[in-house]
Amino acid sequence: MCAVLLAGLSACGGNPKQPAESPGQTAEALKKFDDEKFGMFIHWGLYAIPAGEWKGQYVRGIGEWIMNRARIPVKEYEQLAKQFNPVKFNAGEWAQVAKDAGMKYVVITSKHHDGFAMYGSKVSKYNIVDATPFARDPMKDLSAACAAAGLGFGFYYSQDQDWHEPNGRGNTWDFPAGRNSQQYLRDKVMPQVKEILTGYGQLSLIWFDTPGMLSDQQVTDLRRMVKTLQPMCLINSRIGHGKGDYLQTGDNAIPIQVYSKTKWEVPATLNDTWGFKKNDHNWKAPADLIAKLADIVSKGGNYLLNVGPTAEGLIPEESQSILRTIGKWLDVNGESIYGTSASPFYFPDITWRCTVKPGKVYLHLINWPGREFRFEGLESEVKKAYFLANGKDVPYKREGNTLQFTLPEAPVDPYDSVLVLDIAGTTPRVAAGFASGSLPAKLDLYAWTARLRGEEIRYDRKSMSATNFKNVDTEKNELWWYPYESLEGNYSVEITYACDSKAAGSEFRIGAYDGQNAPRAVEGRIESTGGEFVTRKVKGTLQVARDDRYIGFSLPDDDKSAGVRVRKITLIR
Ligand code: H79
Fold first, then answer.
1. Cβ of residue 45 lying under 6 Å from some atom of ligand 1
2. Which DSSP string corresponds to 387-420?
3. DSSP single-letter state for residue 482
C-alpha cells in the first residue's frame, strides 16, 4: 500500500497515470444512484445560529453565505462555535424524515465554505467536537442511523472555498493577499477528506462544490485519494476539471428537455436558502415539488432536495410536512419513479411527463388536461391503460400513433395522476419527430421549467406564470432556462404574458448567456394586455450557441413592470 498517498499527499512515487480506481465499481455505484432518483440534502452549520440576520440586520441571499455577504471577520464568526449546542438533534428522527419522504440517500455538509467541520476532525480544531459545547460528533450518529434505515449516506465537502483559511478561496476581507492552494490542499482538504472517507462507513457519494482555484493536477490527486479509499464512492462534477462521475446541474437548475448524455442530479431548495434562515417562509408547494420530481426523473436526473436544520438540531416543521406529503404520493406512485428510465419522447408542453420501465410507459399528468387527453408518437401496441392511483382502466381510442384518452372530470391524484400504459415489447417504439432529442421547430420554454432567480420572484401554478421581476440592489429577479446543448441555432421569439396598464412600460430582454460575455439578446417593451394573457412577437433574431449556459428573461433597465406575469417564451427556428 502507498502510505504516502493515504496520508493525503499527491506524490505517490508510482506511475501517476496508473489508475487508482476500478471503473466497474464506479459504474455499479452509478447504476444504484440512477435507480434511487430522490435524495435528501442537509445544510447544517454555524450559520444556523444567525439564521439570516447579523447584528440585527437582515442579510440577503442564501443563509450559509452570511459570513461572506456580511463580510464577517474570522475572529468574530468563530465565536458562534461557542454557542452551537444542538441538544434537540436526533439522527434517527432525521433519517426517518428522509424515509417518510421516499428519499433513498442523504447528503450532509461535513464542511461548508465557512470552513467549520461539522464532524470530529483531528486535522483542524475548528470542528464541532473541539470548538462547541455540544462536544459530540453528530455525523457518527447520522451515518449509523442512515445505514440502519437502509439509506445511502454521503458528505458534502467544500474543497475550494474556505473562508476560515488564509489559503482557502473566498475570504478577501480577512485575507486579501495571494493563496497557496497547495498548502491548503495538503494541510486541510486532503487530510479532512481522508477523515470523512474513513470514519463513517461506506459513503454513497462525496459532493464537492464551487470549483475554481484548484488545478487539474490537484483535482486529479483529490479524486485519486477518494477512489483509493472508497472505490464505490461517487464523485459529483463540482470537484472540477471534468473529473466527476456524474453531472451536477446548477443549484435549482433543471434542463429544459431530456438530457441523456450523462447521469445528472439537481440540487434544490425547499424555500430560498440551504442553511436555515428564520425569515424565509417561501416554501414551495408539494404539488410543485412532486411535479418537479416527475419532471427531473423524466428527463434523466436525480432530485436532491434540501433541508436546513436549526441550530437546535431540528428540521423545520414546514419542511417535514412538505416532505411527508411527497412521501405519501411516492407510496402510491413510486413504481413510476424508482428504477425507471428517462422519457423516450420530447415534451411539447407541461401537461405531462414520462418515465419508462420494461413493458411500461408511465404518463405523469402534472397539469390536468381536462376530459380529453391526446398523446402522440407511440407506435407500440397498447395492451392496457390504467391509473396507478386507483387501478381503474382509462378508455381510449387509437388513430395511427395518436392515443385519445377520455379522462375523469377531476384528477385521480391531487398532484400527479400517473397513467400507466402496458405495451407490447420491452421498450416503446417512438414515431419520427416525437423522440426526445428531436426538438420541434417551435419550442415553448414555460416559466414552470425555468429556474426562478432572486428571492422576490414568485410562480403561480393557476395562471402558469411567474411574476415579481424586481431589481433589488445589484440583483435581479429573472427566469433562466437551461438548454444543455440542445438549442444551437437562430430563432425568432414570442413571449406570452399578461400585464395591466399600471405595470406596463419596462423594457424586457430575452438573452442567450454563455456565462462570461454580454448576452446575445432580443428586446422589447412590456405593454398592457388588459390583464389577459397574450402572445406577442419580439423583434429581431436570438442567436443561441451550442455551449450557452442559459436563456434568460429579465427587466434590465427598470422594474416598473415587475408585476408582469410571464407564462412562456417560444423559440421558432
Ligand atoms: O451549498 C449551497 C450553496 O451555498 C452553494 N451550492 C449550494 C449547493 C453555492 N455556493 N456558491 N453558490 C452557491 C453561488 C453563490 C452565489 C452568490 Fe450570492 C453570489 C453568493 C453571494 C453572491 C446569491 C446571490 C447568493 C447570495 C447572493
1. no
2. ETTT--B--EEEETTEEEEE--SS-SSSS-EEEE
3. B
How many CA atoms within 13 Å lie on the side-chain side of 239? 28
d(CA 235, CA 230): 11
| Ligand 1 atom closest to Cα of residue 64 | 4
Burial of 68 (0-12, 13-18, 19+ CB in 10 A): buried
Does residue 64's CB lie within 6 angstroms of at least one atom of ligand 1? yes
Q: Is residue 207 in contact with ligand 1, taking CB distance under 6 Å?
A: no
**What distance in angstroms lies between residue 65's CA and the mean position of ligand 1's atoms?**
7
Determine the distance separating the centroid of ligand 1 and the alpha carbon of 452, expressed in angstroms.
14
Mean pLDDT by 10 residues, the chain (573 residues): 34 49 94 98 99 97 98 98 98 98 99 98 98 98 98 98 98 96 98 98 98 97 98 98 97 97 98 97 97 98 98 98 98 98 97 98 97 98 98 97 97 97 98 92 97 96 96 93 96 98 97 97 98 98 97 97 98 96
CA 157, 24, 20 angle in degrees (round to 5)?
60
CA 460 distance to own-chain centroid: 20
- Kindly state if the Cβ of 454 falls inside 6 Å of ligand 1: no
Which residues are bridge partners to 57 per DSSP? 54
Pocket test for ligand 1, best of 54, 65, 156 (most atoms within 8 A of CB): 65
Question: DSSP states of 251-313 as a string?
Answer: TT--BSS---SS-EEEEE-SSS-SS--TT---PPPHHHHHHHHHHHHHHTEEEEEEE---TTS
Domains of the chain as residue ranges with CATH: 10-332 (3.20.20.80), 352-423 (2.60.40.1180), 442-572 (2.60.120.260)
Ligand 1 and 62: CB distance under 6 A? yes
Answer yes or no: is the C-beta of 65 below 6 A from any ligand 1 atom.
yes
3-class SS of residue 523: strand
Burial (CB count <10 Å: 0-12, 13-18, 19+), residue 32: middle
Q: Separation of 539 CA from ligand 1 center, angstroms?
A: 34
**Residue 223: HSE in the Cβ half-sphere, 13 Å Cα cutoff:** 27
